[in-house]
């Protein structure tokens, strides 16, 4: 479980990740990435559902590979023997060495250039908050001419992908190799989190399990289970309830 407190003017907000039965003294509780929505509660609630793919990490490395599509498994095995260097950084590493995050930020903004939705999704404030609360992991894979980054929020049991970036669009980068490296890094991420004792790997949303786009197909090709998860706003005071009422009107 992760708890992150924040104050927005007079409003006290607390994010609680991966569990929705935790109490709080804040005005608004935001439960993040929970499996069930909240109903029949006297407080004001805004349930927001998303589809995602979740890979169970309580399997052997061989089973994780076996669950993947044949072409994904082939590319990962091929890439293991290529010139790729993989690194992992936790909250302390990132806080002590700001250049780690700066390199990722530059790569992400270049990668997302021209896509307003992606550029808007990046938040240095959020990443700093995750570092302060010791719940962020950044992985990187370096190969000749290129680099791939993944960023996660995680507690002691769960991890969720929040950012991914690569410089595969640059002229001197082998796009096929970059694609293989990205797949390899996801697999190595799973093994890394599995080694830490985590049990679930959340791919961070898909648009639709019924009419999947290219990114959805990519995430689903790793063999996880399509699930529905919720982010829930819950009013926890008079001010909090009023805020949720306004939020529900905005969401309509």
Write up what this structure looks like:
With 252 residues, the chain is α+β, with helices and mostly antiparallel strands. The protein has two domains: 2-50 and 228-251, no CATH class; 58-198, 3-Layer(aba) Sandwich (Aminopeptidase). The chain is built from nine helices and ten strands. It has helices spanning 61-66, 70-80, 91-96, 98-112, 116-121, 124-132, 175-195, 214-220, 238-251; strands at 2-8, 11-17, 28-34, 45-56, 85-90, 136-143, 146-154, 158-166, 200-202, 225-235. It has a ten-stranded mixed β-sheet with strand order 1-2-3-10-4-9-8-7-6-5, with helices on both faces. The longest helix has 21 residues, at 175-195. The two termini are 30 Å apart.
Instruction: List the helices and strands in order.
Output: EEEEHHEHHHHEEEHEHEH
The total beta strand count reads 10
The radius of gyration is 19 Å
Total individual domains: 2
Percent in strands: 25-35%
- Please give the largest β-sheet: 10 strands, mixed
User: Helix fraction?
Assistant: 25-40%
Which whole number gives the mean pLDDT? 93
Shape: globular
CATH superfamily of the largest domain: Gcn5-related N-acetyltransferase (GNAT)
CATH architecture of the largest domain: 3-Layer(aba) Sandwich
Distance between the termini: 30 Å
- Indicate the structural class: alpha+beta
Low-confidence stretches: none
* Order of strands, widest sheet: 1-2-3-10-4-9-8-7-6-5
CATH topology name of the largest domain: Aminopeptidase
What's the CATH C level of the largest domain?
Answer: Alpha Beta
Number of H- or I-type helical stretches: 9
């Amino acid at each position: 479980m992760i708890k992150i407190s924040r104050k927005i003017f007079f409003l006290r907000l607390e994010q609680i990740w991966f569990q929705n039965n935790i109490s709080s003294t804040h005005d608004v509780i935001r439960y993040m990435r929970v499996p069930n929505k909240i109903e029949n509660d006297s407080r004001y609630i805004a349930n927001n559902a998303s589809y995602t793919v979740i890979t169970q990490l309580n399997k052997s490395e061989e089973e994780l590979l076996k669950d993947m599509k044949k072409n994904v498994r082939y590319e990962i095995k091929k890439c293991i023997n290529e010139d790729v260097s993989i690194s992992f950084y936790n909250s302390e590493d990132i806080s002590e060495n700001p250049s780690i995050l700066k390199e990722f930020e530059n790569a992400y903004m270049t990668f997302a250039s021209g896509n307003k939705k992606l550029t808007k999704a990046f938040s240095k404030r959020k990443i700093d908050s995750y570092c302060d609360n010791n719940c962020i992991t950044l992985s990187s894979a370096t190969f000749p001419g290129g680099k791939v980054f993944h960023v996660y929020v995680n507690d002691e049991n769960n991890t969720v992908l929040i950012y991914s970036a690569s410089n595969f669009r640059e002229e001197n980068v082998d796009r096929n190799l970059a694609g293989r490296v990205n797949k390899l890094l996801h697999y190595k991420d799973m093994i890394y989190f599995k080694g830490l004792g985590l049990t679930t790997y959340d791919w961070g949303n898909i648009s639709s399990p019924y009419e999947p786009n290219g990114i959805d197909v990519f995430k689903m090709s790793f063999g996880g289970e399509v699930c529905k998860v919720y982010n829930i706003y819950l009013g926890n005071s008079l001010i909090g309830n009023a805020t949720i009422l306004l939020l529900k009107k905005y969401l309509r």
